[in-house]
Amino acid sequence: xxxxxxxxELGAMPRGFHLITxxxxxxxxxxxxxxxxxxxxxxxxxxxxxxxNENADPDVRGDLERHFNVMVPENAPxxxxxxxxxxxxxxxxxxxxxxSSLTLPVSEGRLxxxxxxxxxxxxHRDHASGRTIIATLQGE
Amino acid sequence: xxxxxxxxELGAMPRGFHLITxxxxxxxxxxxxxxxxxxxxxxxxxxxxxxxNENADPDVRGDLERHFNVMVPENAPxxxxxxxxxxxxxxxxxxxxxxSSLTLPVSEGRLxxxxxxxxxxxxHRDHASGRTIIATLQGE
Amino acid sequence: xxxxxxxxELGAMPRGFHLITxxxxxxxxxxxxxxxxxxxxxxxxxxxxxxxNENADPDVRGDLERHFNVMVPENAPxxxxxxxxxxxxxxxxxxxxxxSSLTLPVSEGRLxxxxxxxxxxxxHRDHASGRTIIATLQGE
Lengths: 140, 140, 140
Fold this sequence. Notes:
The structure is a homotrimer.
Chain A: E1 2-10, E2 16-19, H1 21-27, E3 36-43, E4 48-54, H2 58-71, H3 88-98, E5 101-107, E6 110-111, E7 117-123, E8 131-139
Antiparallel strand pairs in A: 1-8, 2-7, 3-5, 3-8, 4-7, 5-6
């Protein structure tokens, strides 16, 4: 049984849904050593989130951004937390809807994602700086 | 410390929320050997998802399907990913809202679910074929 | 490799989003023994949920409650599961949107949360009694 934990620093990205599977794989050197295990990813922020979805057509990621903006609009009359800008409270709501962490199965040295699955960073702020993800890999 | 990992293949189900606790338990032989542990379930698809909710009244599952269809309608004017049918982009959105994986506590050889909790497969496509779930069980 | 599992009983809370980081830390004695690991939290109920978000301004938690009440209103005409009161079916829907469990990284004896992150209990019923959370801590 082994544990690896490290910090993956991602540069600033524009608001939207971004495919980061390659960035995550570059950030975890030890994946190939595991026959079976789990990779846990945790984003240390409250206005960005992680998700798994389609890794092919970028229109899916555009539609996700557009639809979340309809479900969680800016300037809703019931928002009281407004001092940090119109994109801030929607970012918190999107963050709890999508979630701050992912757990992914590992088999024979690789992530056991489906053919069409990729890892997303969901950036909900207009002008965020970089984001930090804690990767915890366990297995044997 | 032991690890078990296997693939659970579920047959095609109609669009909606389905209780699959029994299917999952049949798919993991080794649960009774663990005094303490965690079961991780991961669906290898981007248009179906996993959730935990009420295991009794089927109206709860019907209302979930009806309400997700209101929150994530077909044919919204902002969808650009439309080539795979009107149920496709809503399926991706529902998938990220509900999530692709579950982690459940294990104690004394059984899942430590609450009295009213069951495991759901949430099928978001109209005519899906079967779905694959990777079950990873760890503990001692 | 060590495993600890215990039951954390939280007293009744009013409907809304509540910061429970301190309650969780009080409930897991063994965190300081781990150099690296994961904490898994699982709520054994179908009308309350767990989330991670801002630990500072209470307006964020108020806005979350207000916004979830807009996305998931009471008395929607498509609800058929209505016998347990107008707050019941919305509670189930909010529960699957937010999720029943959290997995959090552990490093050098403490939770590796971001500066602004806290753990929320999201109580979706008007008159709930206490809630039970199963905490499973693993690591080395």
